[in-house]
Amino acid sequence: MKIYIIPALFVYLASSAFAVDAERAANTIILHEHSVKNLRIETAEAEERTFENTFFSIGRIEARPHSRSVLSSRISGRITQLNAYVGDRVQKGQTLVQVESRQPGSPPPIISMQAPRSGLVLKSHVADGEPVEPDKELLDIVDLGKVWAVAKVPEAEAGQLKPGTKARVRIRAAGGKLMEGTLLRLGAEADRNSSTIDAIFVLENPDFVIRPGMRAEFSIITSSREDVLSIPRTAVQGDLTNRVVFVEDFDLKHAYIKSPVQLGAKNDLYIEVVKGLLPGDAVVTNGSYALSFAGGGGGPSLKEALDAAHGHEHNEDGSEITEDQKSATHSEGDGQSGENSGKGGINRLILIWAIITTVLLLIIFQRNILRKKTSSSPNA
Fold first, then answer.
1. Which of 32-36, 95-99, 357-361 comes out lowest in average pLDDT?
2. Omega before 107 cis (within 30°)?
3. DSSP letter at 173?
4. What pLDDT score was predicted for residue 316?
5. Strand stretches in 47-144, DSSP E
6. Rounded to whole angstroms, how far apart are CA atoms 234 and 9?
7. How far is residue 322 from each of residues 178, 272, 315, 329, measured CA to CA in Å?
């Protein structure tokens, strides 16, 4: 059987080369420059990075308990001037309210009320001209320079957390920007109905854009691995059984190759690539979904793009024109050169079948020789 190995291997390699060229042509999408702009195509490189294992949770923003202050009057009287309203930012020592005292005088004495701390006016309990008493609260002021982001963490995950654990927190009502939170502590008791426990993270909020009551989304980091090849999650398309990415061609402008990938773990930002990409490959992140339906892309064909990039003719499937094809083209004259070039893919197929037929005839010839030797043997 050894005599069939080399011919069979030759057939396999020839067929494989043809299949690779055809597959490349089928999976390459070439766009016009305006199409790239319209689809807002953006790319990112596959990189070996520190890969963080995370789990998802939701929660709410709360003001820190010790960040609240109340402005109240020390005397009975009537408000003559109110300088701060709900939502206003105030500074410590700023005059917020003026009260006309009921004590006798002509005119009656006016008492100014200053802000006890810098912060945001969270609630107002008075209006201009309203009478006030010493036991009445006038304004609630809260310092939102730091806030609590309280996540509802499943009890099964709580054991992985400890003070100092980091989380990426997204608050869509505050613009959706990711912020880093640091775990302060877990809550005092778990919720029996939901089987969750509060995890209190501290967020910096210098611009006061985060307000109490806002919904928060958490990606809580539990562990990490070094040098993991990964890409942004937005680059991956396809279904669970056929994951693909679009890789920017290193040679052709505005060309993207649909490439199957084998994926591993994922977090809120990245997904691990087990097979199918190399470090430095540029994958489409924004616009990858649209490319899934782009078909030919509306741009030049693969042949036209390669001809322009390399400065010489290619077959329709993007493969290089063989010497035999070049000789056939020249022999038919300049008038037929364009036609032969366009038929390059067909000529290549005929050439492959001719090679396969020749190899099969060689196999039959070798078998006949082997039979003759066997029949002429003395032991036959």
1. 357-361
2. yes
3. G
4. 52
5. 47-62, 68-72, 77-82, 89-90, 95-101, 110-114, 119-124, 131-132, 137-142
6. 41
7. 55, 40, 9, 11
For residue range 176-205, what is the model confidence (pLDDT) as tens digits?
Answer: 999 999 999 999 999 999 999 999 999 999
Dihedral-angle region of residue 238 (phi above 0 means left; psi in -120 to 50 means alpha; beta otherwise): left
If phi over 0 gives left and psi between -120 and 50 gives alpha, with beta otherwise, what is residue 138? Answer: alpha
Q: Give the DSSP letter of residue 378.
A: T
The dihedral through the CA atoms of 206, 212, 217, 223 has a sign that is positive
The rounded radius of gyration (Å) of the Cα atoms in the chain is 37
Are the C-beta atoms of 148 and 63 separated by less than 8 Å?
A: yes
Delineate the domains of the chain, giving CATH numbers in brackets: 1-31+295-380 (no CATH), 55-63+145-226 (2.40.30.170), 69-141 (2.40.50.100)
Which tokens belong to 368? 């006949």
Q: Could you report the per-residue pLDDT of 133-179, keeping only the tens digit for each?
A: 988 899 999 999 999 999 999 999 999 999 999 999 999 999 999 99
Single out the residue of 54, 44, 53, 55 nearest to residue 226, CA to CA. 53
**pLDDT 10s digits, 113-135:** 999 999 999 999 999 889 999 88
Burial of residue 334 (number of CB atoms within 10 Å: 0-12, 13-18, 19+) = exposed
- Residue 102's pLDDT is 84
